[in-house]
Amino acid sequence: MPKRFRAIFWVSAAPLALIASGQAFAQEAAQQSASSTASPQEVSSQLADIVVTAERRSSSLQRTPIAIQAVDGGALQEANVSKPVDLVKLVPGLSVSRGFGGLNNIYVRGIGAQIINAFGDMAVAQSIDGAYVARGTALSGAFLDVARIEVLKGPQGTLYGRNATGGAINYITNHPDFETSAHFDAQYGNYDAVDLKGVVNLPFNDKIAMRAAVGFIKHDGYIERTGMDDQNTVASRVSLRFEPSSDFSIYIAGDYSRDHGNGVGQVVMNTTATHATAITADPWQGPPLGFYAPANYDGTLQNPGVGCTLLPGANQCVPPNTVTYNPNLYGAGVGGYALNPDTVGRWAPGSFLNNSTWGVSGQFDWRGPGFTFTFLPAYRHTLANWVNPAGGYQTIIRTPADQQSYEARLASDGNGPLKWLVGLYYFRETQDPFERYWNFNQVPGGLITNQGYIRRDYHLADTSYAAFGQVTYSITPELRLTGGLRHTYEKKSISGLFRIGQPAYTDIGGTPFCPVGVAGTTYNLPTSECIVPSNDSRSWKATNWKIGVDYDIGPRSMVYANVSTGFHAGGFNDGVNAPAGTFNYKNSYEPESITAYALGTKNRFLDNRLQLNVELFYWSFKKKQNGALSVLYPPVVGFPILNVGNLKEYGADVEATFLATPDDLLTANVSYLHSRFDNYVFTPTSQVTCPAIGMNPILHIPIVDCAGKPVPNAPMWNASLSWQHTFHLPGDSTIVAGVRSNIQSDTDLTIGAPAFAHQKAYQITDLTLTYKAAEDRWSLSAYVNNVTNSQVFNNAQQSFNSGDRTWWGNILPPRTYGVRASVNF
Fold this sequence. Notes:
Blueprint: H1 3-32, H2 40-44, E1 51-52, E2 59-60, E3 68-72, H3 73-78, E4 94-98, E5 104-108, E6 124-128, E7 131-133, E8 146-153, E9 167-173, E10 181-189, E11 193-203, E12 208-219, E13 231-245, E14 248-261, E15 267-268, E16 309-310, E17 317-318, E18 323-326, E19 336-339, E20 352-368, E21 371-388, E22 393-412, E23 418-431, E24 434-439, E25 442-443, E26 446-447, E27 453-474, E28 479-501, E29 522-524, E30 529-554, E31 557-568, E32 571-572, E33 588-589, E34 592-605, E35 610-627, E36 630-631, E37 637-638, E38 641-661, E39 664-677, E40 681-682, E41 692-695, E42 702-705, E43 717-728, E44 734-744, E45 747-748, E46 758-759, E47 762-772, E48 778-785, E49 793-798, E50 807-811, E51 816-824
Parallel strand pairs: 6-9
Antiparallel strand pairs: 1-2, 3-8, 4-5, 6-7, 8-9, 10-11, 10-51, 11-12, 12-13, 13-14, 14-20, 15-50, 16-17, 18-19, 20-21, 21-22, 22-23, 22-24, 23-27, 24-27, 25-26, 27-28, 28-30, 29-30, 30-31, 31-34, 32-33, 34-35, 35-38, 36-37, 38-39, 39-43, 40-42, 41-42, 43-44, 44-47, 45-46, 47-48, 48-51, 49-50
């Protein structure tokens, strides 16, 4: 731990503890002199307690000694949260980088995984009702009929296991209860946005109840010319609750969701700008992609050379030229090259998204004498099915994934000084990725397009076993010690073929290269294919632990400290290992590991009207994994997952909620993060500002080290501020007005980002106004999101084609507005 951080850590912690202690004792004295019962008015003038299950048992959020933020279903609805990227408005320190095909790369405190294919695993573990969800495209139905979402910040290696080095997100749905009820919600807004949701809860008797929910969300594309960044989601869930006795309960749920539309959109970035911005004045206007990806975008007049389209098989050129320069392609005076549609008829048409997922899960609880036994079986099938022409490739993906998991836990009832929990876990996933990347190519001496390609035809399997336990012992009623341990065994296997269409090789060095004979690699002359077989398996073992202490310094104040570890599973990449002395590329990657230190305090002050939670943290990573646009071996541009080096992070989270009056609720959540790589060595094919430390002797391109560079998507400062005021009307109806702002300092969108891939500081503000009838029977709301129409990028990448200077970026939604009506029965 660096001296600078130790100083910040202890200097900050001391006054925090003194403040909390003084306030707690004053609060305790006031409570002792007050009546033991409170009137309804007094109760409504206090902050409500939130119960979470973050540590695999129910506990008050304020008594859970970890950094956790819980957002209830009402807040999610008011903020129009319907997909992971929307959560950034409510949770500081959380960022989401959207990828092709609806992929959601989620980061907590800058830690996540840049996943664009089937090889990688998320570094922030996500689960629906306790069942782990492996694929980022399987979450569209997770926001239907949600009771709350819990965001756990920091490694969760003991209770959640692998792939939780950044934290965990739990989606907790509403379970059936034993009262008849129904809810309907309808919303309409600009971009022809329609959002319909309905929920019915039916008890059959006092032992069996059913709940059914269905949702439909649709809006036109925010990217005008292409119709991309649209949404067309259908989701449903049916659940059953059976309680034959007070000691036994069964919960079973089945869900289905699908996402249609044109897919996640990208815009062409202005590479002459001083910060991230689009090449067009209106970033949501977008490039005129149509069904094709233009071959050049920098607006300068270049000689297109001799253009040709190569047939899928033999190397033959077909006239006429495939590229045409248009001096006004992006508006007056902004030129570029477009493809001639007469010569590209063999390409898959346009862009589309057709992802789907379905699953079944259950929870069986048996309460015995002094313990509860819980069993959670789950199965999920996910299909990633999409086509996207951006990024310099026509990308065609169809990857089915099937996962099953089983978790058995035995937990004490919480009585007495010793609380314990032990469990066993099994996970199995198989994937069969069908992936095609057809190449639009730019080479020195002019522009040509061809049908070079890379293809993946694999079978991937992942099996994981784990045993875990955690105990908390109360030395005194106020002082508790916690220890946790988890041992994991993981095995992954790969079989299949990686094919590289030889024309794609001509953009690296200008001549074909295929290491025939290396690891079974062959070259097929009639089809100009370099074929690399993959048939391998790897296994890893990891033991993670946690040690913590927490102390009640008052009835509603506590301090805690803990040290914990975690690991992110290893896996495979395309191709074979590069020859020694060339560049650091391997066809597999090792697990990353983390040791994390945390010191925090949680408090309620002012007669339970002010909540103040603070955590200081320090994280140390080894063999940090990161996806990077780089060179594979055999030499071709790809996006492998690399063990790039080590990483240190430190920072602080401050969460404050203040019920200033019974009608005024204010929140201020602020996070600070210092995140820099100790070393980050790779062979980039995109533009970076990192110094060269060598030269690749095969490709004659530099090897760089991005040591000292900030982690992408990890702003130093992030804040979420809100104010909500309630106006009381005759007849017990109310009007609730709310304003919420998300403020973020500047951040790099890629490792070693040039200036134009640097998102400047921004603020996004949302407004809501809601009329609520008496007894909350119905409500009518109006909203405006992103009032100032701020232009915010959350991802950037250079074209996958070597030599193509085009940069693409993902941009957050523009200003949206609409009305919503809700009815409760």
